[in-house]
Design a protein that fits this description.
The protein is an alpha/beta fold. 38% of the residues lie in helices and 15% in strands. The structure holds 4'-deoxy-4'-aminopyridoxal-5'-phosphate. This is Aromatic amino acid aminotransferase.
């Protein structure tokens, strides 16, 4: 019989490292029953293409079966589309799933994982879940990565560096010379992850394509996703390109069967329907220019953005601003005390947001 005493544990022993780790906070949905537009999660406002919907529906007919664990057909399609060898590719449960695998593959207690701050909010969470130490290097006053400071912050314990370009939530992207200079300074045993979740929205020609950069650099891994430009956020599928040891580690650490067959087939259909999807991206990029220009005219400071969102640094006014936007029918993403990130949506949604932003400025 188990002894009973006042020392009886009250539940399973959880790792102390989990204490104090903040939970991932998703962008707020519109209130139930409201007609507000959701501009809080950098989603694609367009519904699925008919061909993508057909592929997903066909795959759904056999969801009593496990998916292809190796994602073979998707890897072949990605390899052809991006001219990357299959052995350099890995898929995952969204690019955030791959990011988590990368941390788990490289870092544990005593190791450091570095990233700019503010950046994608999953980085500190997945770092601390692995028991590793986050090293956060502040953005420059212009809301860009401070790559010199990051290079200087590398220690003998640095195992992985996330470089988010374009950066979530500021939208700023890194030009080739600055990125190459930084990569030249990072020791070759430190993995640099170029998180290019928003790559398809980049129009600045000085910003390099990570898939060209990684080829000559065995310590670079490029992260891409089907969630943004391709509009499959709800299906959870992303991919990475890296040299073989890193790609192999990703395959080893991935959750088995983590990418559903529906997601795999929808991703393949999206690559086939890429032309139509990239036209939608172009329309969003045009809306991005319009939104930013209008905000600048209204008197806001808005960093140049290469992503599908804009960033307003509002400090203490952030939550009031977000509430005003919600009341006007546009739900944005507040980062309390810092600023608000506003996804570029359909024209009507952007108009509602712009009107709320103008009203907020006038009220100051
Ligand atoms: N990286 C960045 C920079 C992001 O903003 C996001 C999503 N917000 C992701 C990765 C993860 O996207 P997903 O897991 O849907 O691929």
């Amino acid at each position: 019989m188990r002894p009973t005493s006042s020392q009886e544990p009250t539940g399973p022993r959880l790792r102390p490292a989990l204490e104090g780790i903040p939970s991932y906070r998703p962008g707020r949905p519109a209130a139930p029953g409201s007609v507000a537009y959701k501009l809080s999660s950098n989603e694609n406002p367009y519904p699925p293409l008919p061909g993508v919907m057909e592929a997903a529906t066909a795959a759904a007919a056999s969801f009593n079966r496990y998916p292809d664990m190796m994602c073979s057909a998707l890897l072949t399609a990605l390899s052809e589309r991006f001219s990357v060898p299959v052995t350099h590719l890995a898929t995952g449960t969204g690019s955030v799933g791959i990011a988590q695998s990368l941390v788990q593959s490289t870092a544990g207690p005593g190791d450091e994982v570095m990233y700019a701050w503010r950046s994608f909010e999953a980085y500190p969470i997945i770092t601390r879940i692995a028991g590793a130490t986050p090293v956060e290097v502040p953005l420059t006053p212009g809301e860009e990565h401070d790559l010199d400071a990051m290079a200087e912050a590398v220690t003998g314990r640095t195992r992985l560096i996330f470089v988010c370009t374009p950066n979530n939530p500021t939208g700023t992207a890194i030009a080739r010379p600055a990125l190459e200079r930084f990569l030249d300074r990072v020791p070759s045993d430190v993995l640099v992850v170029l998180d290019e979740a928003y790559r398809e929205f980049v129009r600045d020609e000085r910003v390099p394509d990570g898939l060209e950069i990684y080829r000559d650099r065995p310590n670079v891994c490029v992260l891409r996703t089907f969630s943004k430009a391709y509009g499959l956020a709800g299906l959870r599928v992303g991919f990475a390109a890296a040299h073989e040891p890193v790609a192999a580690a990703l395959r080893k650490t991935a959750v088995p069967f983590g990418v559903s067959q529906i997601a795999q087939d929808a991703a393949i259909a999206s690559l086939r329907g890429e032309e139509a999807l990239l036209e939608r991206v172009a329309a969003l990029v045009a809306e991005r220019s319009r939104v930013r220009s209008e905000l600048l005219e209204q008197g806001w400071t808005v960093p140049p953005t290469e992503a599908n969102f804009v960033w307003l640094r509002l400090g203490e006014d952030t939550e009031e601003f977000a509430a005003a936007c919600s009341a006007a029918g546009a739900v944005v993403r507040p980062f309390p005390g810092e600023g608000a990130r506003v996804t570029i949506g359909e024209r009507e949604a952007n108009d509602l947001f712009l009107k709320a932003a103008a009203g907020f400025r006038k009220g100051r």
